[in-house]
Amino acid sequence: MSFTKTYFLCPTSDFIFPPPTGPLCLGSIIHSTSAPQYPLNRASVIAVADAFPPVVETDWKKTVSTEKGLGVGVYAQFLQLAIGGLPLGPKVNVEHSHRTANTFAFDTVTTLAFEPTQEYVEAAVRAPAVQAWLREPRQKFALVSELFIVTGLKLVKGAKIRYETSQGTTLRGTLGTDLTALGTTFGPKGHWTSTNDEATESNRESEFVFAFRVKRLKFGRRLKLEEYTKGAFMAVGGKKDDDECVLVEDVDGADIKTAEAVPDVTENGNVYCVPA
Questions:
Q1: Out of the domains of life, which is the source (predicted)?
Q2: With bands split at pLDDT 50, 70 and 90, how would you rate the model's confidence at 144?
Q3: Torsion angle (degrees, nearest 10) of CA 116, 121, 122, 128
Q4: Residues contacting residue 111 through CB under 8 Å, at least 6 positions apart
Q5: Which listed residue, of 96, 128, 145, 241, carries a Cα 20 to 30 Å from 255's Cα?
Q6: CB within 8 A of 149, min separation 6: which ones?
Q7: What angle do CA 51, 54, 59 make, to 5 degrees?
Q8: pLDDT in tens, 232-252
Q9: pTM of the predicted structure, to 2 decimals
């Protein structure tokens, strides 16, 4: 069973220190999920009094890979022979490929989360910087404006991160006379291949914010709080790739020794995740 992706990846080129030292914490209000390190209310975050119990995982690993390919078959007839209508020209196939594979491994992952109430959100948006942003012309005269409030953080220690990219181009072709009527082709055949591989690794022992979860704040005739997962990187459980989980319903998960309590917004509390 797969979980809906709800956590966004923090920039790993510029590590974000964990709270309270770093800029990001539960209740932070940000412009965009692509720049979480610049919260509007950093100087006036309202403390979260009803956060879920922290969930700690060990020996955590996740690999994310994507591969794209494009093949193009081209038959270009450069010369039409007068006798017999036999074509003379090349038949060329071109294939382009692009692959990325990112591996994240951590000694420990600590998940912090809370479920903001309407009262908490209304108090949070009274922060001076948020109110100044709302008074800007672009927001002031817009029908709807939006910000995001951080409702979950994944703090990691003992990080080992590897980024890999591979790009390649392959050409295959035949140049000669295509004697289809005789069931044969005269001419040379060959192929040409070019590849470009690159890999980068980094290790970090100290703790930093790896991923975060948000809800969207929509400012219109009234303030709305909505779920937001567009472009999310990972699921709630955050389990290892080879260790998928299933949710067990109508069972007291506390009685299962291997169960782990995971914050779940839809359940308004914790649910128990049992390794399959």
A1: Eukaryota
A2: confident
A3: 150
A4: 54, 55, 56, 57, 152, 153, 154, 155, 238, 262, 263
A5: 241
A6: 27, 28, 29, 30, 116, 121, 124, 214, 215, 217, 225
A7: 155
A8: 887 654 444 333 322 223 333
A9: 0.66
